[in-house]
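tool_call: predict_structure(chain=1)
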Amino acid sequence: MSIDKDSINWLNNLLGSSIKFGEPMSKHTYFRVGGPADVFICPDNVEKLQEVLCWSKDKRIPYTVIGDGSNLVVRDKGIPGIVIVLTKCLN
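tool_result:
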């Protein structure tokens, strides 16, 4: 899946340093396996999380919500769409 330039800009403006593109999921799983996430985000607060969820629904971009990655095995092809880590915004 590819994310268009306008979407990349919108996400960057909303999330700043809390977003990564092509992030290897092996960095975020207990077993250190898994290919890249198209978009990997750690929203700072619930409001940003809500904005991303509404936006991704409007754009028809799939998202996957994860926690710490301790019970997660990701295939080598990675995860299409947006991976959302909740640990930061739920603290």
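agent: Helices lie at 5-15, 46-59. Proceeding to next step.
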